Amino acid sequence: MLLNRKLSSIRLAAALLLGPIVMTSCGSQKSETAEDKKLDSLASEKEFVFGDQRPFAQCHASTLVRLDDGQFLIAWFGGTEEKNPDVGIWLSKGRPGHWSAPVEVAKIREDAHWNPVLQKTDDGKVILYFKVGKEIAQWETWVKTSSDNGQTWSEAYELVKGDKGGRGPVKDKLIVLSNGDWLAGASNEVNRWEVFVDRSTDKGKTWTASPYLKIDTTEIKGKGAIQPTLWESEPGHVHMLVRTTGGVIGRSDSKDYGKTWSTIKKNLIAQP
Residue span of the signal peptide, if any (predicted)? Predict the structure, then answer.
């Protein structure tokens, strides 16, 4: 996480902006099309969003969103060190080669801030979710919104007032299901590492948390799983990948819009 490790999370965000990522599968091989060849010829580039002159010593957990005007917002948490009370949520706006100076967009109180998640709604509103609290088990989820592409922001408010442990998206963007529900991958670390999903049927006004998902402890050893990322492959069929303490990426699947889930088992993807 240290800046002398070249701000890996912020550099990664810039790489994601500037370089296309081509993914392949192990399915039946198809003849290469002209579009495939065009993608193969593209090279990725990397750049820093900010230089050595910065108002924080360390940073981590970058998130980004593309705006309707083609610019990007990038956010991260930064301060003297993770968990320290001076850590806040920082923001930069622009496009490759032209980034605004970082500004602190959220600081609720003198307590550690964590894991920003930027989200854009269909009507163009930008939502910033983030966590506040010294210990992960005591996280509160807070929200700010912008209706002018991140130029100004609303006052912060709690996603679920009084709830501790981390409601709403814990690290990755929520998804809008084909039935219109918002579904967020969530987790907490009170005793074990536990995974759940948070659902909103009214576009983020109210939220309902699912029970914790079951974990196959014969395949996934240690504390458990956290930080799910979600996708819907067809109407009602929702899937998640999770970080685990078992050295593997875990997976769970749902066939009822994320209302019930299969037991989390190890996936074939190795976890770094």
Answer: 1-24
Q: Residue with structure tokens 């099309």? A: 33
pLDDT of residue 3: 36
52 CB-near residues (< 8 Å, 6+ apart):
none
Q: Pairing mode, if any, of strands 157-158 and 175-176?
A: unpaired
Asked whether the predicted pLDDT for residue 9 surpasses 50, the reply is no
Q: Which two tokens stand for residue 228?
A: 């799910």
Q: Is residue 268 predicted with pLDDT exceeding 60?
A: yes
Q: Are residues 100 and 217 in the same domain?
A: no
Comparing CA positions, the residue from 228, 131, 116 lying closest to residue 183 is 228
107 in the same domain as 75: yes
**Residue 9: which of 171, 155, 192 has the closest Cα?**
171
The pLDDT value given to residue 35: 61
- Asked if 33 contacts 83 with a C-beta cutoff of 8 angstroms, the reply is no
DSSP strand pairing (175-176 vs 248-254): unpaired
Scanning the structure block, which residue is given the tokens 């974990």? 215
Residue 269: which domain range? 171-272
Amino acid at 8: S
| Residue 259, both tokens | 């209302």
Rounded CA-CA distance 150/26 in Å is: 41
End-to-end CA distance of the chain: 16
Q: Which of 167, 195, 217 delimits the end of a domain?
A: 167
Sign of CA dihedral 224, 229, 234, 238: positive
